[in-house]
């Protein structure tokens, strides 16, 4: 329904629907820095998921086909909601680390979880705002990076940047993860592995045996 010369009139057809849709998709692309791909792939990938981006039209006819529940030849997935679709194209990055506190040079694993429409692509981890390592490929929406390069005592701000893909706009961690790096204790003594303990024990037994033999020899001379 549109207003023509002050009167409500009803129009339809491709000549109206096409420019309306193209204009709407252009706005969504602009909001996502033109990272989204051809719209048909997005629509048919996510339109059938009963998302709020589409309002199902269940009645009416174009003379050849009638609207029904779900997808139909008359109305497709339904009317298009620009604001809801724009939200669906957004992604979010949540960052975590294990352990949360490490000693200098100790191994720590950063994990970035990306939410969205089955996100693919890469994640660039950052430490205190600077890129840390190379971009990491997402696997099932998760990227991990294990490092021993945190050597400066203090608190580091860990964030991540998601590259985006054809169905998701790129995004940055909203809340940073604070990783604490503690100084090594002054009396830090490395723990021997099991084989080292056995070797040390054998050596001590051997030294003890030599000492007993030496005492026995001295006693015999006396």
Outline the structure in words:
This protein has four helices and 14 strands. It has 222 residues and is an alpha+beta fold. Helix 1 (14-31) runs parallel beside helix 3 (82-88).
Helix fraction by DSSP (H/I, runs of at least 4) = 25-40%
The CATH class of the largest domain: Mainly Beta
Q: Mean pLDDT, as a whole number?
A: 83
- Categorize the overall geometry: rod-shaped
Count of helical stretches: 4
Unreliable stretches (pLDDT < 50, length at least 5) are none
Distance between the termini: 123 Å
> Cα-atom Rg, whole angstroms?
33 Å
Backbone structural class? alpha+beta
Count of individual domains: 2
Task: For this entry, give a set of tags.
222 residues, three-stranded antiparallel sheet, alpha+beta, 2 domains, seven-stranded mixed sheet, Immunoglobulin-like, single chain
Q: Which secondary structure elements does this structure contain, and how are they paired or packed?
A:
Layout: E1 2-4, E2 7-9, H1 14-31, H2 39-46, E3 54-55, E4 79-80, H3 82-88, E5 92-98, E6 101-103, E7 108-115, E8 122-127, E9 130-131, E10 136-137, E11 142-147, E12 154-162, E13 171-172, E14 177-182, H4 194-221
Parallel strand pairs: 6-14
Antiparallel strand pairs: 1-2, 3-4, 5-7, 7-11, 8-9, 8-10, 8-12, 12-13, 12-14
């Amino acid at each position: 329904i549109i207003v023509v010369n002050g009167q409500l009139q009803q129009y339809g057809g491709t000549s109206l629907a096409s420019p309306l849709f193209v204009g709407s998709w252009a706005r969504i692309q602009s909001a996502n820095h033109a990272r989204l791909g051809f719209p048909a792939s997005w629509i048919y990938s996510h339109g059938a998921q009963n998302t709020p981006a589409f309002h199902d039209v269940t009645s009416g006819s174009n003379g050849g086909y009638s609207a029904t529940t779900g997808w139909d030849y008359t109305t497709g997935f339904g009317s298009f909601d620009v604001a809801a679709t724009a939200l669906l194209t957004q992604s979010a990055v949540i960052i975590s680390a294990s352990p949360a506190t490490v000693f200098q040079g100790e191994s720590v694993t950063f994990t970035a979880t990306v939410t969205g429409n089955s996100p693919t692509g890469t994640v660039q981890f950052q430490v205190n705002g600077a890129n840390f390592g190379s971009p990491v490929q997402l696997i099932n929406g998760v990227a991990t990076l294990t490092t021993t390069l945190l050597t400066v005592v203090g608190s580091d701000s860990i964030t991540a940047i998601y590259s985006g893909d054809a169905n998701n706009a790129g995004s940055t961690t909203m809340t940073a993860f604070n990783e604490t790096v503690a100084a090594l204790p002054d009396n830090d003594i490395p723990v021997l592995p099991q084989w080292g303990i056995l070797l040390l024990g054998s050596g001590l037994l051997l030294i003890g045996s030599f000492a007993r033999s030496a005492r026995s020899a001295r006693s015999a001379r006396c």
